[in-house]
Every structure is written in structure tokens, then in C-alpha cells.
Amino acid sequence: MSLLEDATHEPMSDKPGDLNTRTIVNPSTGRKIEDVPEHGPADVDVAVARALDAFTRGPWSTFTATQRARILLRIADEIESGSEDLYRLEALNNGRPVNETRAQLSRVPEWFRYNAGLLAAQRTAVLPTDGPYLTYQRRAPLGVCAIITPFNHPMLILARSLSAALANGNTVVIKPSEMTPLTTLALMPMLRRAGLPDGVVNIVTGAAPAGKRLTEHPDVAKVTLTGGTETGRSAAVAAARRFARMTAELGGKTPIIVFDDSDPQGAAEGAAFAAFVAAGQSCVAGSRFLVQRGIYDEFVQHLSARARAIRIGDPTSTDTQMGPLISERQRAKVMELVDSAREEGATVRAGGEIPDLEGDLRDGFFYTPTVISDATMSMRVARDEIFGPVAVVIPFDDEADAISMANDNPYGLGAGVWTSDFARGLRVADEVHAGMVWINDHHRLEPSLPWGGIKESGIGKDAGQESFDDFSWIKTIVARTAPGYADWYGGANERLN
């Protein structure tokens, strides 16, 4: 908790109601961690005004690339030096086991260093032009950018967009999930120590009304949102009304295709990570396992055995392999979908129940890793996003059948292919409709890899050169280099247009 002592907790304004607070709950126990301000639309207006003032006055927006890059590198160092406290705070807040959280958050500094490198190496074009002209391009920051982050990966998802937004000279308003704001708040003193000027980064810790106002605010030039598809759709409409930029990573129903040339035990144990990491609370969680009939039964057997062996418990313990779901509401949704599978004729081969834990953990929002077999593509568990530790295993006949089933879904965020035939893996990856495809692995990521989906999984990319470039706009400048002026109406007619 020491990380939060210097964090910003005060209300944004002094209007009535601004002292309302929200209790942040430990999902492992259902008990209070601490209270944070419940910011609303009026507070969002204050935060955006601060960010706009900081952008207009500078100096962040007018710093040289070298000056901004130095501060980004210092931010990376600050996060790295406080990493152990960050791991534990995030594990406490969202219930993800500390081993998983450590593995993920240890990479957060890489995003700031990567975008600092892109900034230092940035070049703009000189364009070929007929006639006596020099034509070149300049990049400029957008202005105030809104970053709305989810509960499942608060710090990593924030870092992807924040590092790119800051590198380009923008100012930022962050709205973390109302359930998991603690590591975002803990980041603020680190930013100050790194030398980031006041007002460049602002945080509002509210719920849906705050997020809605942020997406609709006329002074917000770009919205980056990670969340549910319907939330993303509403935000995209709001942004489109004023022609603001929008990046959205939304829902997913990731297919994991397992061919019968794979070792069924190795594939099941390797691909279990796709289904159960973060208790299945990931947009690219492998929730649809499409397995060729020749190894179907054996694969289900091994996946079920792996699911039953996963150690559930206190996420702050290094012995724990899976923590709780984020809330009682989310657990109830998962349980309802599993019950619907039973009613539709599927078989629960592992899990499908609340574990019997001891002590304070009895009141946590835990659910056992679940494997469902004998499923069909028409069942709800095969079509709806579950966002819980549930793997649905469906048989297929041949390659064409697998591709057709994989693409039979409104989402298109991620996909996985497991095969010992490398050519087949590449071939199927080309045919699957998803923004990211892994072959014989899952969820590998790097700062240089663009992250984002198609269809109802969103628009735009986080990370990579694509994300970096989208936080600036291009100005094209055409300069006449010949002496004198072209007199179109005087008869010279030397213009080419």
C-alpha cells in the first residue's frame, strides 16, 4: 500500500457530490482495500481542461524529441525500481496471481523504452514533386488523448497507449476501470519523479458516467479504449460525431485450432495457458478449442487433467496458479453460461463449480478451471464471450472445416493454431479472420507487435509503429523554390494543376 501514499486521491472540483467515494474490493476476499474518489462528468471536464491547458501552454507539447525521450526513459526506470510493489498491488486489486502479474508487469518499462526509441529515430518524408517545389511532411501531437483501461491488465494496457501518447507530445486523461484503479494511481508519483510536467497526465477514477463523458468531450482528440464491444460501439459513435480518432480493443471469442498431427498431451498442456491465464479474463482467452476428431478424446482427457491440477488460492502467494474472478457479478455470469451448456447437452469434464477454500478466501469470487466437451458451434458457450476460466472443446473433420468454424463468429481479435506441420500452420493462419494469430503458442507479445482485432473486436492498433504514428497528425508543406511567382491569369499557365 505504500505506493498509494503519494498518489492523487483528491476530487477534481469542489462541486456538491464530488467527495463521493468508491470502495475498492479485494476479489480474493470480498473485503475493502481502500476508498478512492468517485469522479463524475464534472470531474472529467476539470481533468480535460487541465490537460488542454498543459498542452496549450507547454512545455511538454513543445519539447524536442530528445527531451521527451529522456523523460520516457526515466519513467521506465522509475517503474522498474518500484516493480515489486506494483506486482503485489495489482495482484491484490484484480486477483491475478503474483507470478503472472510479475511476468506481465516486468515488461511494462519496455513499452516506454520502445516508444522513446521510435521518437528518437523518427523521420518524416520529403516527397517527390514535379516542378520547382520542395514538399515535405511534419508530425504534430493531437492534443488531449483519453485512455480508458479495463480491470484485467490495468498497467500493461495503460503502458501501451500512454507511452505512445506521451512520446508524441500529447497530454492525457486516464480513466482506469472503477474496480482496479490502484496501480494507475500509484503510477502518478513515478511520473512526477521522472520529470513529467504537471497537468500532462490526469486520472479520473469514476465508473460508466465518467467514461461516457470522456468519450464525448469536445476537447478530446483521440480515445483509446479497451473494454466490452457495446461500450466500444457507443464510444466510437461519440468520437465519430466530432471526427476524433478512436482505437478500441473489444471482445473476443478466440478459436484454438488443434490438428491431429499434434501431440495431444503436449498441445493440451501448452494451450491450457490460453484458456486459464488470468482466470480466463482476457480478450484473447482461448475459449473455443477446435480439435480434430482423431485426437479429440485424448486432448479432452489431457486438458481436463491439467485444469484439475491448477492450484487455486491467494493470488499474493507464489504457490497460486489461478486467482479469483474480478467480482461476484462476473462469476455469476460465468456460472450461468456453464449451466446453459449443461442444459444444451454438453458435458462438464472438469471444474464447473465454486471451490471449497478456507479462511478469508471463502468470500472471494473464485471459480474452478472448467472444461466442457461434447459441445457444438450453436451453443451459447461456443458463441458468447465468457471472460472466465472455461474451455469449450468442439470436434472438427478437416482443415476447411476448422477454418470455417474458426471464422463463424462476430469477433476477430486472436486465434491459435497447433500443428507439427509448419506449412499448414502458416496456411491456416492466413485464412483465419483475426488480428493476431499464434502458431504452437499463445498470447506472446512485444512492444513492436501491433495489437488489435477486426469485426466486433475493435478498430485500430495498440503497440508497434502503427500505434505510435496514430498519436500524431501529418502536415504536408509545399514550398515553391523558383524565383518570382506563377501568374495563372497573366497567360503563363505554367502551373501543373
Average pLDDT number:
94
Pairing-aware structural class of the strands and helices?
alpha/beta
Largest sheet: 7 strands, mixed
Give the strand order of the largest sheet, numbering strands 1, 2, ... along the chain: 12-13-14-11-10-16-17
Determine the strand fraction and express it as a percent band: 15-25%
Please count the beta strands (DSSP E, at least 2 residues each): 20
Number of helices: 16
Shape: globular
**Share in helix:** 25-40%
The low-confidence parts are 13-17
Radius of gyration: 25 Å
Oligomeric state of the chains in view? single chain
End-to-end Cα distance: 66 Å
Describe the structure.
The chain is 38% helix and 20% strand. It has helices at residues 41-57, 65-81, 83-94, 98-105, 108-120, 154-167, 182-194, 208-216, 229-241, 264-276, 296-309, 328-343, 380-383, 399-407, 422-431, 464-470, and strands spanning 21-26, 31-37, 126-127, 133-141, 144-148, 171-175, 201-203, 220-226, 245-249, 254-258, 286-292, 347-350, 370-373, 390-396, 411-412, 414-418, 436-439, 454-455, 458-459, 472-480. Strand 5, helix 6 and strand 6 form a beta-alpha-beta unit. Helix 1 packs across helix 8 and helix 10 packs across helix 11. By secondary structure, it is α/β, with parallel strands linked by helices. The protein contains 16 helices and 20 strands. The protein is globular. The protein has a seven-stranded mixed beta sheet, sandwiched between helices.
